[in-house]
């Protein structure tokens, strides 16, 4: 008999998101990073999944976390923050590991300054959620869990 591990998500948050709660509350709301991570973990648990959350202000640390995901995580939820708009390296890391990716932004980047309208990550994400605040993380978890649980169910039928 094989024992399957519980399905797990890697939830990555990029630079300056550690300041959530006090950072530009008119744009990002008053939820803290702890609130965001608790929302993602709670949503994962509601599906019988687990979630590992990492926040970093350093591009290389985010890339290392992405490289470490295969075997530990079934999908990646990422708010690359400002690196969305600059980082080919994070985009390449995500496409390199080949796990399903959901990109989340708290704010609606398309309603903001023009330099935020383009994200290098979007081209390698299955789904992009922006402007829903903390709820966007729950939506991302719900999407991934529904999709991968359905795929697993149809594979065993
Ligand atoms: C953000 C949007 C980015 O443009 C910005 O640099 C961030 C946060 C968001 O969640 O709305 O740091 O990713």
UniProtKB/TrEMBL annotation:
<keyword id="KW-0028">Amino-acid biosynthesis</keyword>
<dbReference type="InterPro" id="IPR001874">
    <property type="entry name" value="DHquinase_II"/>
</dbReference>
<dbReference type="InterPro" id="IPR018509">
    <property type="entry name" value="DHquinase_II_CS"/>
</dbReference>
<dbReference type="GO" id="GO:0003855">
    <property type="term" value="F:3-dehydroquinate dehydratase activity"/>
</dbReference>
<dbReference type="Pfam" id="PF01220">
    <property type="entry name" value="DHquinase_II"/>
</dbReference>
<comment type="subunit">
    <text>Homododecamer.</text>
</comment>
<keyword id="KW-0456">Lyase</keyword>
<comment type="similarity">
    <text>Belongs to the type-II 3-dehydroquinase family.</text>
</comment>
<feature type="binding site">
    <location>
        <begin position="106"/>
        <end position="107"/>
    </location>
    <ligand>
        <name>substrate</name>
    </ligand>
</feature>
<feature type="binding site">
    <location>
        <position position="85"/>
    </location>
    <ligand>
        <name>substrate</name>
    </ligand>
</feature>
<feature type="binding site">
    <location>
        <position position="79"/>
    </location>
    <ligand>
        <name>substrate</name>
    </ligand>
</feature>
<feature type="site" description="Transition state stabilizer">
    <location>
        <position position="23"/>
    </location>
</feature>
<keyword id="KW-0057">Aromatic amino acid biosynthesis</keyword>
<feature type="active site" description="Proton acceptor">
    <location>
        <position position="28"/>
    </location>
</feature>
<comment type="function">
    <text>Catalyzes a trans-dehydration via an enolate intermediate.</text>
</comment>
<comment type="pathway">
    <text>Metabolic intermediate biosynthesis; chorismate biosynthesis; chorismate from D-erythrose 4-phosphate and phosphoenolpyruvate: step 3/7.</text>
</comment>
<feature type="active site" description="Proton donor">
    <location>
        <position position="105"/>
    </location>
</feature>
<feature type="binding site">
    <location>
        <position position="116"/>
    </location>
    <ligand>
        <name>substrate</name>
    </ligand>
</feature>
<feature type="binding site">
    <location>
        <position position="92"/>
    </location>
    <ligand>
        <name>substrate</name>
    </ligand>
</feature>
<protein>
    <recommendedName>
        <fullName>3-dehydroquinate dehydratase</fullName>
        <ecNumber>4.2.1.10</ecNumber>
    </recommendedName>
</protein>
<dbReference type="InterPro" id="IPR036441">
    <property type="entry name" value="DHquinase_II_sf"/>
</dbReference>
